[in-house]
Each structure stands twice: as C-alpha cells, then as structure tokens.
Amino acid sequence: MQLKIIKMENIVVIGGGLMGTSAAWQLSQYGEKVVLLEQQNSNYKEGSSFGKSRIARSLGPKKDIFSFLHRTTVEETKKLLHFLNGLSPKAKHKMSDIYSTSPVTYIYNKSQEQELKQLRFKGQKDKFKKASGDKAFRKFGMTVDDSQVVVQEYRKYSGTLNPKALIKKMQLGIKKHGNTISFNRQVTRIVKKGHYYEIKVRNTKTGKSKIIQTRKVIVAAGPYTSSLLKKIAPYFKRLIIAKRLLLSFYKINKKTYQQLNKEQRKVLFKTHPVFDQQDEMYFAMLDKKDKQGVPIFKIGGHQLRGNIPNLDAVWRQKPLKKELKWSKKAFVNYLRMLEIPVRKKEIILTKRYYCIYSVSRTKIPYVTPVITKEKTIDKNMIVIGGMSGTGAKGCLAYGRLAADWLLNVNENSKIYQKTKKSLGVERLMNEVNKPFFKK
Ligand SMILES: Cc1cc2nc3c(=O)[nH]c(=O)nc-3n(C[C@H](O)[C@H](O)[C@H](O)COP(=O)(O)OP(=O)(O)OC[C@H]3O[C@@H](n4cnc5c(N)ncnc54)[C@H](O)[C@@H]3O)c2cc1C
After folding, report:
1. Residues 419, 69, 179, 355, Cα dihedral to 10°
2. Which atom of ligand 1 is nearest to the CA of 246?
3. Cα-flanking dihedrals φ and ψ of residue 242, to 5°?
4. HEC per residue, 124-148
C-alpha cells in the first residue's frame, strides 16, 4: 500500500528523552527548523530519562571529558533559562528548578589505587575533601574503616539534576522557537534514498502510518536505538546494549525520622547524593520529601544490571524480591555508616521499578555520524546513544555536539575536540572494524 508522504522536513530528531530533546533545543537555538518525534504521549514514563533525580557531578581526572560535559551542561542550562526568562517579564525559570546543589559523596576502597590516582587530588580544580578511617568521621560524620576513602565534591550545581523539569523547559524552548514536538509518533522504519531519508512514522493513537522525508536526522531513541538502526547501521546492535536496573525509593518511618537529632539530619542531607565505587556501586540521592517533610531516597546499584528479554514489557515488570532485599540492606548499612542506627523494619519502601540504560561496550557514549554499508561517513545522520549511567549530567552538551556534527559547527578548544573525538566517528570506525566488535 502506498503511504501518504507528508513533506520534506529539514531536520528530524527521533526520541524525546533528555538527549533528543536537548539536540532539538540546540538546533532550535542555531535557528534551524526541527521536528521532534516521540513515541510516548506528553506524560513521559518509559525511558531512561524518567524521574526527578540524577546525580550531577564534576570531579574527575585532569582534562576529563565527563567533567567537561557536566560543566557545559550547566552553562547551556543557564542559556536556556535566559532565553525562557526573556520571553516574558513574568517568567521565572531558576537554576534551582533543575539543580539542587549539595556535596557529592564518593566512597572508594584504598585498593582502587588507579581510580584514586586518576582523580589527581594535587592540582584538582574542583573543590573537594578527602579522608579515611577516624578522620572521615571528623570531616563528614561518617564511620568508615581504614581501607575506605571518602571524597566529597563541592561545586555549584553539583548535587542532583531533575530530568523531568529540564525536559519540560527544553520543550518550551523548542516550541518558542517555532519548532514542532509530535508525541505519539513512533518511527518504525528509516531508509536512505539518495540525498534524503524516508522515515515511516506510526501514530500510536490511531495506528495509521505516514512517511516523512528529511535531509538530516538525529537518532536519540535511548534503549531502542540499536533496534531502530538495525537496517541502516546494524553494527550498533553489538555496540550498544540495553540493560535494566532496579530503582527503589525508601524513607525512614515518620516516628523514627522525627526522633533524629539536628546533627543526624544535617549529616543525612550532606552525605546525599552518594556514589560508592566499590562492589555493587551503590548510589543514593534525595528524590523528594513526602507530605510530612520526610525525605525519600532513591537507591540503586550500577553493577546490578540485568538483561532484558523484552524491552517493551520491562517498564511494567516487577523488580525481584532479592533485588529489593539488597537495596534495603544497602540503604540501612549506609545509614549506619552515618551513625543513623535504624532497623530494617523502620524503613518503608515507597516505590520501585526498573529503569533502563543503554550501555556501550566501553561505557563511553556515542555522539557520532553513522558509517554506511559502503564504509563511508554519513554526517546527515547522527546517533546519540549508549549513554550509560552518567548521561543526564551531560545531556545539553551531548545535544550540542550532535547539533554541531549535523551543521558542521566546530569549537577549537582542546577539551571540546577531545570530547568530540572520544564520542565520535573515528572511534566508531575503529570499533566497527575491530574483530572483537565484529562477532
Ligand atoms: C537507573 C538509572 C540511573 C541513572 N543515574 C544517573 C545519574 O545519577 N547521573 C546521570 O548523569 N545519569 C544517570 N543515568 C543516565 C541517564 O538517565 C540517561 O543516560 C539518559 O536519561 C538517557 O537519555 P536518552 O534520551 O538517551 O534516553 P531516553 O530517555 O530513553 O529517551 C529515548 C526516547 O526515545 C523514544 N523512542 C524510542 N524509540 C522510538 C521510536 N521508534 N520512535 C519515536 N520515539 C522513540 C523513547 O520513548 C524515549 O522517550 C541513569 C540512568 C538509569 C537508567
């Protein structure tokens, strides 16, 4: 059956999570005409960017690309808010809508010499404190043994980032530039035809499909990226893998929480978010407060990733009992480290679900033009994918890099060039040609 061809678009962005929305916003800023297609409705629920909290942190080795991505995102967020506030005298978009500044706590084991050495405490530009054993108690109120090293990072806008609020503000920015965001639009096929792409789009409400033609396209479909590209860039199936991860939300029961003294509460807030670099890579952060002011913490473990037999079903799958048992125990253990001696029965589970990562083999994301079957580089299709567990903090920088690739915009700074190269097409070409990645 011949499908209706809508029209030739200038640029189409596929996927309305943090990455696609950010790319569409950056292109809008550059004055481009863009259409953003998202398969869900405007009530975003099934994607890696779902939720209200992610750790945003800067500390890293010298010339670290991830620190650069975080810092660039902070600067780009300021630009976004400046634009939105300029639209009306009544507009009051604030950085605090998106970032909660607080110390970021890291826990290492002394045996992780390599990681600790990489942080280059001497000459480190970000403000930090470091201690182990008894000294950690005096500095941070944390009881750790001599084999553990606690590091706290202090930097404005390091702490937590709210993806939901950021996506909403970027959407507003895109629309105010006169661009289009189409929800309930699922891309089911992408075909290259000469100098343009033909994209088949299904309206998930009516079930009807249409064809959009476009000269340029950005694919930012999160965990769906590899399957969406299976015909046009099949190698991504081996390079980007979707994994599920438990997220559980806990609070201390009201009575016990109210019995905590001022010092204990202070320590509780100052030591979240936390990212433990040992074993299961426990992370925890303040997600929100309940109606009575009791904090609810989001808990997970980066090393407890599971495979996904059915990507469409996983969003509604119930987490396993053993996973919840682990997260509760890990939360209680951490509270004990903070000298907040609560028992397991005083902890309440408020919510739990699986969130999905797309992880690259090297754990480093891609923002890259695709390589065609003929092994040529096609700069008219850019992929943002394999964002792993640190995508959110750099989202506006990833979006900008994608827009820069597409429009041939460049920045001369060394760190920009280093980042572009680490995520970009040179690396992709290497990986596609490596026997290890070929199998
Ligand atoms: C448990 C967990 C903890 C994390 N913690 C942190 C953290 O502390 N700090 C940090 O910086 N990052 C963290 N991250 C990573 C960060 O959240 C992700 O890297 C980021 O949200 C990825 O965004 P995305 O846009 O690539 O993917 P998504 O948010 O999944 O967006 C992809 C979008 O594409 C849409 N889509 C897919 N297929 C199609 C199609 N065919 N047609 C149209 N639309 C389509 C989807 O519906 C979805 O909305 C964490 C991630 C997880 C899962």
Report:
1. 110
2. 1
3. -85, 135
4. CCCEEEEEECHHHHHHHCCCCCCCE
Distance CA 324, CA 318 (A): 10
pLDDT band at 1 (very low <50, low <70, confident <90, very high): low
**Token pair belonging to 93:** 């978009």
- For residues 73 and 135, the answer to whether their CB atoms sit within 8 Å is no
Residue 122 has pLDDT above 80, yes or no: no
| Report field, pTM of the whole predicted structure over 0.85 | yes
Average pLDDT of 139-152?
95
Contact call for residues 248 and 351 (beta carbons, < 8 A) = yes
Instruction: Determine which residue's CA is closest to atom 41 belonging to ligand 1.
Output: 187
Residue 220, pLDDT above cutoff 60: yes
For 244-257, the pLDDT digits (tens) are: 999 999 999 999 99
Tokens standing for 433? 């040609």
How many Cβ atoms sit within 10 Å of the Cβ of residue 111? 10
Residue (of 193, 221, 228, 198) closest to 211 by Cα position: 198
Cα 346 to ligand 1 centroid, rounded to whole Å: 33
Q: Which atom of ligand 1 is nearest to the CA of 273?
A: 8
pLDDT, residue 175, reads 98
Domain boundaries, the chain: 128-160+242-360
Measured between alpha carbons, how far is 178 from 176 in angstroms, rounded to an integer?
5
| Average pLDDT of the segment spanning 329-348 | 96
| Distant-in-sequence, close-in-space partners of 402: CB < 8 Å, separation ≥ 6 | 19, 23, 26, 218, 220, 367, 382, 384
- pLDDT value at residue 5: 67
Which of 14, 26, 49, 357 has most ligand 1 atoms within 8 Å of its beta carbon, as the pocket-test mutant?
Answer: 49
Residues with C-beta less than 6 Å from any ligand 1 atom: 14-20, 37-40, 46-49, 54-55, 186-187, 220-224, 228, 245, 247, 300, 355-357, 387, 389-393
Alpha-carbon distances of 40 from 23, 50, 227, 311, 384, rounded to whole Å = 18, 12, 17, 14, 19
Q: What is the average pLDDT value for the chain, to the nearest integer?
A: 94
Q: Using 50, 70 and 90 to split pLDDT, how confident is the model at 120?
A: confident
Band of the pLDDT at 137, cuts 50, 70, 90?
very high
Q: What angle do CA 164, 170, 176 make, to 5 degrees?
A: 140
Q: Would you say residue 10 has pLDDT above 80?
A: yes
- Confidence (pLDDT) at 34: 97
Give residue for tokens 């923002």. 367
Q: Provide the pairing of β-strand 377-385 with 209-219.
A: parallel
